Amino acid sequence: MKKTIFYLFLAIFFVTLTSFSVHKFYMGIYQVNYAPEKKNASNYS
Length: 45
What we know:
Layout: H1 2-44
């Protein structure tokens, strides 16, 4: 029973860590592509 809980916790931790790093990586790429657009938009206003 304890082993099952341990593996369940390990799986949840792994999924959380992986999804967080994927999200961070995606946001990094998106911001690189989005930054020039944002700069131009702020100049117009």
